[in-house]
Amino acid sequence: MRDLLRSLVPWSTTPGFHVATAPFDVLILALLVSAVLIAVVDGVDRAVWLLVLQSVSLAAVALVTAISSGVGEIYLSVVVTLVVKAVLVPLALVRVVRRSAAAGDAGRMYLGRRNVFILALALVLFSYGLIQPVAVAGTLITGLYFPTSVALILIGGLTMAVRKKALLQVIGLIVVENGVYTAAMAMTQGLPPVVELGIAFDLLITVLLLGSLAFHIGAATESLDTSTLRRLRH
Amino acid sequence: MPTILPALLLAVPLVAALLCLIPAPAAVAEGVSVLSAPLLLALAVAVAVRAGWTPGTCRSGAPPGLCGGTVDALGLYVDALSALLVLVIGLVAAVALLYSRGYMRAEVTAGHLPEGTLRWYYLWLHLFVASMFAAVLAGNLGVLWVAMEVTTVLSGVLVGISRRPDALEAAWKYVVICSLGIALALFGTVLMYYSATPLLGHGNSALDWATLLQVAPHLNPALVRLSFAFVLIGFGTKAGLAPMHTWLPDAHSQAPSPVSAILSAALLNCALYAILRYHALTMRALGPAFSTHLLLAFGLVSVAVAIPFILIQHDVKRLLAYSSVEHVGIIAAATGVGGRLALFAALLHLLNHALTKCGMFLAIGTVIQRLRTRNITRLGGAARVAPTLATVLLLGGLALAGSPPFGPFLSEFTAVRAAIAQGVGLAGVVLLALLAVAFGSLLAQLGHVALGPACHRATKGSARARELGHAPALLSSSALAIPAAAVLLLGVHVPDTLVTLLQRASTVVGG
Which of A176, A180, B64, B76 could cysteine-pair with A156, CB 3.0–4.6 Å? Predict the structure, then answer.
């Protein structure tokens, strides 16, 4: 709990955190808040804007890492993140929303909004309170980024599980991916450029396919609600 | 010495896909596929024979897992393990491509698919095959991950190509669940990279499998353990290991049958291949205990979970899909037993299952097309109306259930024997018991289709019976002979070159 409070105070310094600068902590806050809000927010449009916020924060994390480490390759990662995650992917999502007739009811979930909010906060607590001590013991993993990335992965998974709306599940998937990217940036200053380009390309085509599938499912069932997908059993 | 063969394996399907882009009648794309299929088969067999035939060179001091591994200018890495997978993908893809012609034509005639879609079907199919080859030839674990995610997207397109609501639902479920799974595998990949950067620095070499295997004993053990856990869950989702298999019966049953065949017989094995690469690294870094126990547990659970669903299944394609979960479980469990003999059995079973399942999905596809139902209770008595197809189904069912004299029996038997010899007798006994139940369940179901009381609808109209007995397109049906002959041959005699290939592949995994 103390770890959590300390992490939410921007000017805190955590022992072992290798680049303990204030912007990093603000960015961590932005990542976590956007993830939690994506899990509970009403309306696909708002979720897409939150996703843009998260992706820009992520690019900023990469930018700070690039500046502080002086590794030129990371600037490529900044550009790729901005172009793919903050522009192309949101555009693709918005396009599906505009084209599909059944855009309402985006808030529908399998759980109540308050419960999802509490669950999401619990996952943040879990990541900071439990994962950090476990991970730090005997490994090189230190600092705030590892628990943050775990929190993003878990909240993204939660979003995918509780949302009925197809496009919000896709956004949950991107939050998971952002969590993995955060971990990669914090632990290893990203992955080799070839691999990063491949990952960004994969994310883009996955979102395009899922958007297209959601559109056709919407056309076939007149809703983008996956809770109506109940035909295949056993 | 590197050759041009691996590069050709990628180039041929890519060129074929480009040719399918030409806006021409579907016959052009069909012709391209009929040409590319034997070419792919020949290339794949050449790669496999080369890896099993040439004396494997081992550098002194290097781990035995690196013996015979060659890397070319494109970074494509070929050793016995990737050659085995290339062989499996090549065989399955060639058979499915040849079969597609007759099968997809019939789908168009039946009105399930607009004719204009055919060209796109062959385009996606060739790209899908190329992405699978890329996955098993990638020397870099990051590129392996990228290629695996590309296979998800391309096969997702193929699953939903008919745009029926059921197929769209299956494709949706498939791509969402597998993308989530594979995101976790990416996390595992990052952790492996993290464990290697202190030794190898940042850059591609810290994700290069061969380099990693050399430095594996010096990798941070806690990170390697965490990495393997994430990779097993992540790629295990794509491999159809229980309890992450829930998407599999939908996707494999809703896809067009040639695509089902590739999904079950080739793509699942690509995901298993990724797990095997990490398994090799983990064993060398931590010793065998950790990853073998996990694989054994997931394998046995998968076999156990699949059986009740095989028993209660009404949809014949879902039946085959659950049988894939069972067989992936057998391969994982045999790998988890550990030791040279068990690994040999696991890899032989991978090949046997691929050949059998490929043939079964194609044969069932034709039966479904002709009887216009996939409900097992309505498919009864196929023997009276189509003796040849019914025979193929019955023999395939026997092979799939693990009966002698077919290939799967040999590999399952070897796996159980290895478990007892290896001192994990309890696992061996459990596996044996599960296999016995699976044998009964599968045969009861498929026996009904082939021999059971004739279904009312099928025999009532003589026109329908004639339709069923009507010989399918020659090219399509003769493609079935390839897996059928191979499964029979592998049950009686495993050729020496193949034995060497399998032995070398198990050395790659087990050191």
Answer: A176
What is the SS3 assignment for B161? coil
Tell me whether residues B186 and A170 touch, CB distance under 8 A. Answer: no
Under a CB-based contact definition with an 8 Å cutoff, are residues A205 and B212 in contact? Answer: no
A205 lies within 8 A of chain B by CB: yes
Of all helices (H) and strands (E), which one includes residue B70?
Answer: strand B70-71
Percent of chain B with pLDDT over 90: 63
Beta-carbon contacts of residue B450 (< 8 Å; ≥ 6 apart): B382, B383, B390, B391, B393, B394, B397
A34 or B466, higher pLDDT: A34
Q: Tokens for B396, please give them.
A: 């395939």
CB–CB of A157 and B180 under 8 A?
yes
CA distance B50 to B52: 5
In order, the DSSP letters of B243-311 are: TS-TTHHHHHHHS-HHHHHHIIIIIHHHHHHHHHHHHHHHHHHH-SHHHHHHHHHHHHHHHHHHHHHHH
Residue among B419, B402, B423, B420 nearest B411 (CA): B402
Binary contact (A234, B198; C-beta < 8 A):
no
Domain borders along chain B are: 5-510
Give the amino acid at A156: G
* Minimum Cα–Cα distance from B148: chain A residue: A202
> Encoding tokens for residue B487?
């499964």
Least Cα distance to B68 among B85, B82, B86, B88 occurs for: B82
- Enter the pTM of the model: 0.91
pLDDT band at B425 (very low <50, low <70, confident <90, very high): confident
Helical packing angle, A145-162 and B165-200, nearest 10°: 170
Question: Which runs of consecutive H residues, i.e. helices, occur in chain A?
Answer: 2-8, 22-40, 44-69, 73-80, 89-99, 113-126, 132-136, 145-162, 166-188, 193-221
How far is Cα A157 from Cα A147, in angstroms, rounded to an integer?
15
Has residue A119 got a pLDDT over 50? yes
In whole angstroms, how far apart are CA B265 and each of B31, B132, B287, B443, B462? 24, 12, 31, 20, 36
φ/ψ of B256, rounded to 5, equals -55, 145
Please, which residues bridge with residue B208 across strands?
B140
> B277: left (phi > 0), else alpha (psi -120 to 50), else beta?
alpha
What proportion of chain A, given as a percentage, has pLDDT over 90? 35
CB A106 within 8 A of CB A43: yes
CB contact under 8 A, B143 and A231: no
3-state secondary structure of A8: helix
The C-alpha atoms of residue B37 and residue B378 are separated, in whole angstroms, by 34
Q: Encoding tokens for residue A227?
A: 């809770």
Element (H, E) at B77: strand B77-78
**Residue A169: other Cβ atoms inside 10 A:** 22
**pLDDT tens digits for range B365-400:** 888 887 778 888 777 767 776 777 778 888 889 999
- Say what angle helices B268-286 and B496-510 make with each other, to 10 degrees: 50
Question: Could you tell me if B161 lies within 8 Å of chain A, comparing CB atoms?
Answer: no
Q: Name the band, by pLDDT with cuts 50, 70 and 90, for residue A102.
A: low
Residue A189 distance to chain B (closest CA, Å):
8
In this prediction, residue B391 carries a pLDDT of 82
Q: Do A180 and B165 count as a contact with CB atoms less than 8 A apart?
A: no
Q: Which of B150, B187, B313 sits opposite A202 (nearest CB)?
A: B150
Mean pLDDT of B448-467: 58
